[in-house]
Amino acid sequence: MLQDAAARYIAEKWVPRAAEFRELGLMPPAVWREAAAHGLLCASTPEEYGGAGGDFGHEAAILLEQARANMSGWGGGLHSAIVAPYILHHGSEAQKRRWLPKMCTAEFITAIAMTEPGTGSDLQSVRTTARRAGDEYVINGAKTFITNGQNANLIAVVCRTGDSGSGAKGISLVFVETEGAEGFRRGRHLDKVGMKAQDTSELFFDDVRVPVENLLGMKEGQGFFQLMQELPQERLIIAVSGIGAMERALEETLAYAKERKAFGKTVWDFQNTRFKLAEVQATVLATRAYVDACMTAHLKGELDAARAALAKAWVSEQQCKVMDECLQLFGGYGYMMEYPIAELYVDARVQRIYGGTNEIMKELASRFM
Length: 369
Description:
By secondary structure, the chain is α+β, with helices and mostly antiparallel strands. It contains 11 helices and 9 strands.
């Protein structure tokens, strides 16, 4: 029911405005608030904190329909299924009651600031600091490639606390409420190859002061553990989005091949087309089965970091192959952005990069072999 409702809402409310969102480079806060009112935010957040009281399966239903509709600009998956679980699983009761209800209504739009200009997948090397000064933390550093960066007014900043030096020890997550935060600055709204409607930005913190109560958890130095606990779900989100996009690409290509005429017959009438799409279908079905198996494991609490890393890497690689095969069957029209396959193609490429590059995913998985 939720999946059907999400599909209808996205088709009616977002798809007609897709060009507008691409031009803006984001989906405005008013769109977030309306979506929240229709149940598209924080589906897995408990009802006592204002959420729908579901689980990750409900988040996945929304993510699938978002991907099928080719609405890559919606950052609700990160907000609802990444940032909210950090607070829910690791925050104090006061933090949950302070932040989660406002996230459920989109009064707070969230981001998580991990990546830095010189630090990508290597989270142990972050240089942003949060130094204790009485009853405050003073944050200094720069972040980049931050999803929801322009819209966000509640940001989880991955930073180094205490005098721990380098490495995992001393990493903490400190939340910044941006309204009225002196020293906080949004940098460039980044121009990307794909995902044109997604809000991706640079963020700067110059002596930004926040209360010590904004430290996630009960003590400093827990950030790396918190990240490792929650990253498997982030990587599963990428896999879920990947299969949704692959299913849409196959659907679009089948329809086009059966309508487009070449040399007096449809593209579908050529044996090569049928064979190629049969191969694509096999890939899509196999990938869906793999993602479903990972979903089942995750809902049982059995999806470990290594398996999640493999899922993210393998699914994103299959996604890019499928998009390439499908675009080729469109011929020159596949290279035109007026056709959904073109946007699906360019949007797919980042799947192998964000959430940890696929090279890092394979390295992580190999450690457990």
